[in-house]
Specification:
By secondary structure, this protein is α+β, with helices and mostly antiparallel strands. Helices cover about 45% and strands about 15% of the residues. It is built from three helices and three strands, in the order αβααββ. The chain has helices spanning about 1-10, 15-20, 30-50, and strands at about 15, 55-60, 65. Strands 1-3-2 form a three-stranded antiparallel sheet. It starts with a helix and ends with a strand.
Length: about 70
């Protein structure tokens, strides 16, 4: 997840991209279990990053991006 966000350089990474890349291709569309698993993974990553976890910004209905800290 972090690699994809860093490679995007501030651009939004679609939630489906995370499901395909991180959880494996063929994961169900962004509904139900797949979406919940992504939310849990992002939450854990934010926790591991400590104060920098707040830089992972949710773009509602689209995905995630790295914020600029402002």
């Amino acid at each position: 997840i972090l690699r994809l966000l860093l490679e995007a350089k501030g651009a939004v990474v679609a939630a489906q991209t995370f499901l395909d890349e991180v959880l494996g291709a063929g994961e169900p569309a962004l509904r139900g279990a797949g979406a919940k698993r992504l939310l849990v993974h992002v939450s854990h990553l934010r926790g591991k990053l400590g104060r920098f976890g707040a830089l992972i910004v949710n773009v509602s209905g689209v995905g995630y991006r790295l914020g600029d800290g402002s």
